[in-house]
Amino acid sequence: PYKGRSGDVSPGVDGPSVMPEDLYAYVVSAFQALPPPNYVPGPEEPEQAPPSPVYIPYVPEPVYPEYIPPEDDVFPAEEQP
Question: Which superkingdom heads the taxonomic lineage of this protein's source (predicted)?
Answer without folding.
Answer: Eukaryota
